[in-house]
Each structure stands twice: as structure tokens, then as C-alpha cells.
Amino acid sequence: MHKLAVLVATFAALIIAPTTADAVITEVLDGDLTCGVVQDNASVDSAIGQRWCGSKPGSITNSVVPALPSSRSTHKTFDGVPLDVNVAIPPDPNPAADTDWPVVGMYHSYAGSKANFEDMQRWLDKGYAVFSITNRGSGESCQSSGSKAADPTGCAKGYLHLMDPRFEIRDAQNFLGELVDENVINPTRIAATGNSYGGGESIWFGVLRNRMMNPDGSLVPWQSPLGVAMSTAVTRPNIAWTDLIQAIAPNGDTLDYLRDGSYSGKVGVMKESLVQSLYVQTRNAPIGTDPGADLMGWVARLNEGEPYPDMASDAMATEMTRFHSPYYGDHSQAPAPMLMSAGFTDDLFPVDEVIRYYNRTRAQFPNTPLSIFAGSFGHPRGQGQTNVRNALRNLEEQWFDYYLKDIGAQPSMDVTAYTQTCQSSTGGGPYNATDWASLSPGELVLKSSGGARTIAPTGGDLAVSALFNPLSSGTTACTAASDTVETGSATYDMAAAPAGGYTVLGSVTVIARITVENGPNSQIAARLFDLDGAGNRTLISRGAWRPDSSGWQVFQLFPGAWKVEAGHSLRLELLPKDAAEAAGGLRTNFLRPSNSQMPVTVDKLELRVPVVEAPGALNGLVKAPEKKVLPDRTGAALAPGYQAIGSETLIEYSKRVDPCPTGTTGTPPNCQPHGDPQGTPFVTGKIIVKGKVLKTRIRCKSGNGMSGFEGCFKINLAFKGAPKKGNKGKRLTIAKRRGLIARPGQTKKVTLKLTGKARKFFRDRSVRNRGMERIKRGPKSLLAKVLINGKKSGFKTVRRVGTVK
Predict the structure, then answer these.
(1) Whether pLDDT at 667 is above 70
(2) Which residues lie across from 515 on neighbouring strands?
(3) N or C: less crowded end of the chain, CB within 10 Å?
(4) What contacts 106, CB < 8 A, 6 or more positions away?
């Protein structure tokens, strides 16, 4: 609680107006917001005596004295941008105690605006002050023509920064600090809540907790302008993102059993319809003018599509992960208590967005209050089930009452889930567990037979893709299509459910040996369906995978929750696209089709389906979960809750399920190589030049999994200037080396000699101009084509980090 010494030290210019009952607070934020006292219960019930500070739209008919403006109520933030704000305080029968209020910050969704006083009633009625701000580039914060005309100078940089803690979060923190100095709110009884974009803002408040980020990216203690220490007490983010690049362009490598779900560097497949519909709704910086807020430039790069990576896509991913994704915020300290909620049928920000943050935080700070609530709600195709909505509302109030007012018992740190339903408005469940892993103690497994299958580049039914596009007219979570197998797909059907059925809950896992000529520049669009046995199928979950060129691979679809009734069955469908037309279809394509989609061969596929039934259920059909397969990624480890299940690497898995695969002869364990037993090498990490050499790393992924013959050997590695327009040094041979060797799973440092022409290209040199000598610096970077054994293996940026001789 606020101590008397701090109160005295920070007491700042409160204006007491005894002429109006209970109206101790008559203005806030340095007088920029007038506070009126509500006189009646016209359109907003139980509001008499509340202090409304800000602007009141004409749709709210309560009488307020003094009257408030109807258009906007702005206050300038740290860099002079005027932002639209509302603050509300409950009535107080004792003016002497009209101070130190616990406050709930309500943060709006993308392209939305601050909460109006009607929206605030839930928290005002419970005795909380409420704060709400319209973020830069939205509404009356420099997006509307009226707001820009009112302050053209201040609005010059009033564009969206895409939930950047250096701007949007700092804006709100500064304003809350001023309310502390004006003795209106308590500096440590601060909550943050919001949906979607506002959910991301709420997570950032929890991650930063008692810190603030300066415009240069440095962290400092969060203090009010007068030096009072401040911190977030609790947050309630709903349907939010934690990793923006994965949310808008998933690459499939987010696995719900990994301790660390960091972005692996493969730019994924853009959610075309959703991204295209969102970014045009806000005021954005002109393309290329602000590298930290270049939303138009990032969308333009995603619209171009493959090949990835290049300098533009690398810069985009780096910026998104550093300053626009709370998962990558400094996590050297525990976050504020956090109740995270997400929707199974939310195609924009699926449940894996919160699982990612939950897993790492549980591992790093096991005693931090952190909980997940999941159901069928959120962005399209989300549902709105009454029992789910009421359960979440009750949880929110329990968390806020406990952490803001010390009321009630500490909320449990468990995971709660409700299933998608289509025959009623009631969600199935609830299902509760102590952690995410324990929600689904059982597993159903399908192992494919009949040899390899091919996903054709032109495969799929465009009409079906249109039907399941979240923005298509009439599409809902329960939209059904014919169960006809789509041409050119790789389809896997499970047996019909026995009596009683079973409940899918979690992320289905796909493990297979996959081959595609152009590797991560093609895609696999995956869907999981319920087949009702009467000719219909309903979508349960979906996802995207950027396949490597060859080898054993593991990926997951977005988490889903669905009761498979007796006689129904599951179908996994792998397609070359989840789109209704060519790239550029704007609102008709869920996923953007790849520019150069190649045939994808899928062999020995295993499908693992998590279920709520215990092992042994359904006459032994339900099994205990198999060991989790860890991806070929440095540091991959299990999240808390999965230790009892255990793990194995892709190499170990391949040896176990396919000890003598195609390309070998003999009988296990005496397999002999036939042909080239080599694994798959690739370049990973930074590529730098200095002195006379180029340095980088190569990594060997498991290839055919042949016992005793795994490895990458006789690797011929070369870097050449990418043949792209405007790329200086295109087709220049930078460096090359033959005969490199790496063990499976090994990341190996390698050094290559720069060619004479490359040294000349990167070297600084003296030039004379009008008799004066000066140094002309060599290029800092060059986009290069990577060649492995003479074949193109993507593009990488080569960076000069020192003097080249």
C-alpha cells in the first residue's frame, strides 16, 4: 500500500471543489481532462456520483456536471503526440479518502479506441478507478481528420508503432505515472486488461512489470515523473499474440511441448486474408520512413512472398521479435501475475501464442502466478459460448480482486479448457489440469501405410478453401464441407470412434520423412477434420509448415478442442495451400500460396492426437503419450509437465521407427548404405567477413537415419552475390570451400578464404577528389546465394564486421 511518507512526497496540486458533493477530483493529467460528476442513471445504470474525466459521446445520455467534450480529450505524451484518454473514478462518500485508487487499465483492440464510460462500469461498480487510452495512429489519437487538424504538429509522428514498448506501452506508463503524482491512483495496484491488440499491450505490462523502455531500447525502473516507484500488479490478456512473426506468418515449428518456443528463423506463410484486412485500418508511417514502425513495408515484403530469407525479410523478423513481440522482452525477472486466455477457433492468434509464453515462464519462474484459459472464442472463426464467457469473467474478477484489493483466496495457477461445440451454445467441459501437458493424458496414434504420398503443387479444392477462410461471408467455426478427398492432397483417415467417443484437446503432432526440392520456399497447409460419417467434415484445427528439403521432420497444427462422437472419425489433410485463388487474393486466402510451390513427398507419416481420456480407455484404444520428438534445433528441451513422458531426438526417432530405410540394404541392425547416405547440411547463424576470411556455421540435420552412416560429409560450400536487381556485387564469388564434414545434429564453425575479387569488393580504399585524399568505405553487407554441393540453399546476408585486407 501507499505509505504516508510517499503520499506526502508526491502529493501534487489536487484541486478541491466543495461545491459539488464528493467531487474532490475535478481534473486530471495536468488539467487537460476535466472531470464531471454523474448526476443521474440515464443510459448508464448505477453511475450516480462517479467522476468521468475525458470525453463523453452523445450516445451516453447521463447528465454530467460540468459537461464534458464529446469528440476527444487529449493529453500529450513524452514526444509531444496528443493521445485521447479517459479516466473514471468511483463515487466516494468520504472525500478525505478520495485518493490512492487501485486502477484497471482497459486497452483496445487493433484500430479501436479508448473505452467509453459505459464500457468501464464493470470495474467502476467494483470500486476500481479505470484508465483507457487510444493508441497512436487510431481513432482520435492522430488518425481521424479532426484530431490531426486539431494538432498537426503534434500528430506529425502520431502513427502506429505496432505495440512497441518504446512508444505505446511507454505512453500509457507515463500517463499512469502522472495520475500517481496527482494522488489519484496507487502506484503498485495497477492492472492491465484488453483483447487482441490490447491483449498484447497487457502482456507487455506484465513482462515489463516495474520497468520502462526508453526510445533507445534501454530499460529503466518505472517511475512517475516525481520519482515514485511503480509496478503492474496483475494482467489479464485475452486473444493476444506473444510472437508477432509467428502469429501472422507461421512456419509450423511452434511445438506445445518445448520449453523455449523462440522463432527459428524460417519466415512462414502469411495469413493473407487476416493481415490484409487489418493493416489498412490504422494510420501507418509512409513506407520505408521509420524502420521501427514500417508496417506498410513489412506487409509489402510478405506480399512478395518467397524466396526467403533476404535482407528485407531478415530485418522485418528482427524488428518484430525485438520490439513488437512480448515473448522476446527481457525476461530476467518474473512477470506480473497473468491470467491468459485464447481461442481454439481463433485463426489469427491461436492458443499456441499463450502456450509459448506459459511454457518458458513456468520453466524459468515456477512459482509465478500464471494461468491459461482456453475455449472456442476470439477472432474469426471464434465462437461466443455463454458458459465459457461467464467462467472467464468470474476468473478475471477473482484475479483482480485478489491482486488489487487483497480480497479472497489466491486464484489457482491451473489450466482450464472448454471445447468447440456445434449443437448448442454451451462449450464442452470444463477440463482442468495443473499444467498444459496434463490436460491430455492420453493419445491416439495413426501410422501411415501404403508408401509415400505426394502433395501436388496444384492440389486442393479452391471452393473448400474459400469455405474455411475465416473472413468469407457466412463462415463460422461450425461450417461444414463435403468429406470428398481433395485432389492432389495427402490424406490420412483414422478409424471411427467407438461407443462414447473421445475428446481431442491440444496440438496434434505430425512426424514424417518429407522431401521437396526447394525446401522452405514451399509449404504444407495442414487441416484436421471431424468426419461425421454422413458425408460432412468440420474443421477442428489447421496450421502451416515450411518443410526442409529432405529428412525427418516434426510439426504441429494449432491447438484444437473437439468431441469426436461415436461413429465419427478424424482426417488429417496435407495440401500445397490453404487458399481459394492465387496470391494477392486479399480476403479470400487464409494462407498466401507460395510463389514456386514444388511437389512434396511425405513418407512414413505418424499422426499423434492428444485426448482427455486416460491411457487404456476405449478398450485400450487410448495409449500413453509417446516420447516427444525434439526438433533439430540447438537447445531444444521439454517444457514443464512433460518430463514423465520423456523425449527423443529426430535421429533417435528415425532409428527406432525406420532402422533400415530406403537407400540401404540388409536387415536391422546391420543396415548397409546404398547410394549417398548423407544427411542434410545447411548454413545457420551469422555470416561475417573480416581480414581475408568468411566465417559462418553449418549444421547437419539427420538424413536417411541409417545406423552407423549418419552425417554430412564432402560438403562443398560456396557463397555468391545474389542475382537480384539492385544488389551490388551480384554473381560475385565471395568464398568457397570443399570437403567439409559434420556429424548429425552438429553445428560446426567453418572458415572460408575470401576470393581476391571479394576482398577487393569489401575492402576500404583511398580515393582522391580535387587533390584531397579520403577513405571510401567498402560495403557493410551483401545479399548472397548459398550453394551446397552446387545446389541453391537459400539466400543469406553476408556482413562485414571489420577491416578486409
Answers:
(1) no
(2) 601
(3) N
(4) 114, 115, 119, 120, 123, 130, 131, 132, 193, 194, 198
